[in-house]
Specification:
About 3% of the residues have low confidence. The strands form 3 sheets. Strands 5-6-7-8-9 form a 5-stranded antiparallel β-sheet, covered by helices on one side. The protein has a 4-stranded antiparallel β-sheet with strand order 1-12-11-10. Strands 2-3-4 form a 3-stranded antiparallel β-sheet. The protein is of the alpha+beta class. The radius of gyration is 22 Å and the shape is globular.
Length: 385
């Protein structure tokens, strides 16, 4: 029998149910899942620490010492999947311990994360990064982790936008057929994108490897179909011009097309579609939020055109239905926040953080605009009404 797993708050449990990949802090429509702060399965790591003359409880309460230990014995974790998984769970629990609002989250086809609504840490990737980072980078990470631990807990209530039901006779959006193709590894084996990784998670070598970005070419087709649907369904102005790519907060490379769709109603939020040569799509919603599709095309994230299209359609159709809200500034850190409620009642998501490299004048304009909105963005006006 292994050592007791009692180094963290409460009784250990399993990981929370996986959320749809790519959604930030997704909550099922039926209610919020239980908060998970202490995950079990780290007994092999405790035994490993004991064998090296180190008390695991000391590592649990000292992030700097824990990171140093993980770096020192990184080769042992790299060559032992059971030990690596136990070390990742232990590190995640130690991070969750740093803040009362921190918790575990799991995503379909991706590694679990630990954090709060402002910042999350992917523990599997953390172990890989610790092994390869230089000393200066490690010190910077530990400093950032401790700064995050000291940040005040934001107790401000989350927004709850409520989308409206579509009016009778409104055209129904239908996804166009997406291109189909089989993609192969360097060894000639078919790559089963969307289901490459099992319970053990992605191969560490698959991070930052983007083998076949061309599998996302169909996203341009979906973006055009969504634009056409919005124009046929709502009272909007549609204008295509590369200059609209400036709506994005972050500059993107290889812009092929940029289309801004503006509803003819005060208090309703515009959408800007930027199609890139990657191929991919970035949608700018409102005043301070960009949504990239795909979020990440690397082999580890294992996204497909179909699952990415699901998310893009959910965002666009929910925004038009009035299921979208933004706030800025939030808390003492003056972060920006968004909330999205699915148009079909399937769930909700939200996110918050630093607005990014945004000019002060634009932030000031956003603050004034959102103050005038004073709540969720309004639903788009139906065409012909």
């Amino acid at each position: 029998m292994g050592p007791a797993e009692d180094l963290f708050e409460g009784q250990p449990s399993g990981l929370p149910e996986p959320m749809p990949r790519g959604r930030a802090r997704y909550q099922p429509a039926a209610g919020k899942p239980a908060k998970v702060r202490h995950v079990g399965g780290y007994a092999p790591f405790i035994e490993f620490c004991t064998g090296r003359g180190v008390r695991a409880e000391e590592l649990a309460s000292d992030p700097e010492r824990l990171i140093s230990f993980l770096r020192r014995f990184g080769s042992h974790f790299e060559n032992d999947r059971t030990l690596s998984a136990a070390a990742a769970v232990f590190a995640g629990n130690a991070i969750a311990r740093l803040r009362p609002d921190a918790q575990w989250a799991a995503y379909e086809g991706a590694s679990p994360t630990v954090g709060n609504r402002h910042r999350q840490f992917e523990v599997d990737r953390l172990l890989v990064a610790v092994r390869s980072a230089d000393e200066e980078s490690l010190r910077g990470f530990v400093s950032a982790l401790l700064d995050w631990a000291r940040e005040e807990v934001d107790e401000s209530p989350a927004m709850q936008p409520v989308p409206v039901s579509p009016p009778a006779g409104q055209p129904r959006y239908v996804r166009p057929d997406l291109p189909t193709a089989t993609y192969y590894s360097p060894g000639g084996e078919p790559i089963p994108y969307g289901r490459q990784w099992g319970a053990e998670g992605p191969d560490p070598d698959s991070y930052s490897v983007d083998s076949h970005p061309e599998r996302f070419a169909g996203l341009h087709v979906v973006a055009r179909a969504l634009i056409n649907h919005l124009a046929a369904t709502y009272d909007v102005d549609v204008h295509e011009d590369p200059v609209h790519a400036r709506d994005l907060l972050n500059e993107v490379r290889d812009v092929q097309h940029a289309v801004r769709v503006t509803p003819r109603r005060s208090g309703a939020v515009p959408l800007t579609f930027v199609l890139t040569g990657y191929p991919g799509v970035v949608v700018h919603a409102g005043v301070l939020h960009d949504f990239p599709f795909p979020v990440c095309g690397c082999d580890a994230c294992d996204e497909t055109a179909e699952t990415t299209a699901d998310r893009m359609e959910l965002l666009v159709l929910s925004v038009a239905a009035g299921g979208y809200a933004e706030r800025y500034p939030v808390g003492s850190r003056r972060w920006s926040e968004y909330a999205l409620t699915a148009f079909d009642g399937s769930g909700s998501e939200g996110g918050s953080g630093e607005p990014g490299p945004v000019a002060p004048a634009r932030l000031h304009e956003a603050e004034i605009r959102l103050r005038d909105v004073a709540g969720p963005w309004r639903p788009w006006p139906p065409r012909g009404r």
